[in-house]
Design brief:
binds glutamine; Amidase signature (AS) enzymes; ligase; globular; GatA; nucleotide-binding; alpha/beta; eleven-stranded mixed β-sheet; 446 residues; Amidase_dom
């Protein structure tokens, strides 16, 4: 499938084979032991995993979908990846992504676009499109992603798989190449809520290597045997059903909510009144933080260096030839918003509105346990459909950005299909650190 889908930037067959042989040796030793039950095997021993190419794995290139990091080999491993390695996974490769995770279609990768396995004329979503496509195509049971404004949930919806964007701070960002540091989260795609929950719970938890890592304890996630949701209060925000969204998406999401009600949940309307500001606020804060984070790619410290006579010329040429168009657009937006005289009007103002958006969610979670809504306004669009229109591309994120601005967790999972046979997803959000209730609800539905 790989030649037609292009899910990977780096395929690591030798590494995978070595890890698989290790797993096999461990398993055989365990079976030979006198009292095999005494020494438990690691929970994911021998299970394949793909890793989005914005997460570091020692000794394997980490390109972030960019020419500027084409030859960068990280000397360390991201905490999220390390915890899964400790749990026994076998890494198959590093998955394709929009350059520095900026995009909603995986078309912004310097190494070519990924395709949607349900229809290769369509995008898999993005920026974690390689991971979502690979899980949907059953090339791997699970794959890691990152979500700054929807990059796990939207591709999960477009590809018909399950994906979790954890609470901000829940999974360590150590070893995740920074995009918008106050929004970035590390999460995972798998085939079901139950499998996604397993990977998530092994990655989550405090990490002294990430100063924004949360200290909240992580308990193992228990999933109900019975698909019953008695007592669960679901809120449906009217602001997430907007004119211009696809009727098929609205129908599928409303039908899934009716099914959750049938399983015993109560459904009520909730209000998230500042939703309309999420898009402009996000597209100020994310580029502002990105412009600062991307200043480090100067040709001196990492990856690409374009030769030149003078230092500034070297910076110019390296950044000019190393970054793609979307990344340059974000750096310009971000540096503009942060410049002297504009900072208060743009960045500082956006931060204030962000607080109002977060407060909307905290208020809503006084009344309900879970918010249910669409993931994206349309099913997967065609390759090239939005490439000349950045604003149309940004609109795909309208229902996913608020969770990142508020720091709350979001889970996307399949709710149906369009008439054209493309998957449609539904999104559940909860109060911070209540991922378990998202998994329980989706598991009951599945
Ligand atoms: N599409 C959004 C952006 O381009 C979100 C991407 C992400 O979550 N990494 O910024």
């Amino acid at each position: 499938l790989e030649p037609s889908l292009h899910t990977l930037i780096t395929f690591t067959p030798e590494l995978a084979l070595r890890m698989a042989e290790d797993a096999d040796r461990r398993y055989r030793a365990w079976r030979r032991a006198d009292s095999p039950a005494e020494e438990a095997l690691p929970p994911l021993l021998g299970i394949p995993l793909m890793v989005k190419d914005v997460l570091c794995l020692k000794g394997v290139p980490c390109t972030c979908g960019s020419r500027i990091l084409q030859d960068f080999i990280p000397p360390y491993t991201a905490t999220a990846v390390q915890r899964l390695l400790d749990a026994g996974v076998v890494v198959l490769g590093k998955t394709n992504t929009d350059e520095f995770a900026m995009g909603s279609s995986t078309e912004n990768s310097a190494f070519g676009a990924t395709r949607n396995p349900w229809n290769p004329a369509h995008v898999p979503g993005g920026s974690s499109g390689g991971s979502a496509s690979a899980v949907a195509a059953r090339m791997t049971p699970a794959a890691l992603g990152s979500d700054t404004g929807g990059s796990i949930r939207q591709p999960a919806a477009y590809c018909g798989v399950t994906g979790i964007k954890p609470t901000y701070g829940r999974v360590s960002r150590y070893g995740l190449v920074a995009y918008g540091s106050s929004l970035d989260t590390v999460g995972v795609f798998a085939r079901s809520a139950a499998e996604t929950a397993l990977f998530f719970s092994l990655m989550a938890g405090h990490d002294p290597l990430d100063s924004t890592s949360a200290r909240e304890a992580v308990s193992p996630i228990t999933l109900p045997d019975e698909p019953a949701l008695k007592g669960l209060r679901i809120g449906v925000p009217q602001e997430y059903f907007i004119p211009g969204m696809s009727a098929e998406v609205e129908q599928a999401v409303r039908a899934a909510i009716a099914q959750l009600e049938h399983l015993g949940a109560t459904v009520q309307m909730v209000r998230l009144p500042h939703t309309e500001y999420a898009l402009p606020v996000y597209y100020l804060i994310a580029p502002a933080e990105a412009s600062a984070n991307l200043a480090r790619y100067d040709g001196v410290r990492f990856g690409l260096r374009a030769p030149a006579e003078r230092l500034w010329e070297m910076f110019d040429r390296t950044r000019g030839s190393g970054f793609g168009a979307e990344v340059k657009r974000r750096i310009m937006l971000g540096t503009y918003a942060l410049s002297a005289g504009y900072y208060d009007a743009y960045y500082a103002q956006a931060q204030k509105v962000r607080t109002l958006i977060r407060q909307d969610f905290l208020d809503a979670f006084q009344q309900v346990d879970v918010i249910a809504c669409p993931v994206a306004p349309t099913p997967a669009f065609r390759l090239g459909e939005h490439t000349d229109d950045p604003l149309a591309m940004y609109l795909e994120d309208i229902f996913t950005l608020p969770a990142n601005l508020a720091g709350v967790p979001g889970l996307a999972f399949p709710a149906g299909f369009s008439a054209a046979g493309l998957p449609i997803g539904i999104q559940l959000m909860s109060a911070p650190f209540r991922e378990e209730i998202l998994f329980q609800t989706a598991h009951a539905y599945q």
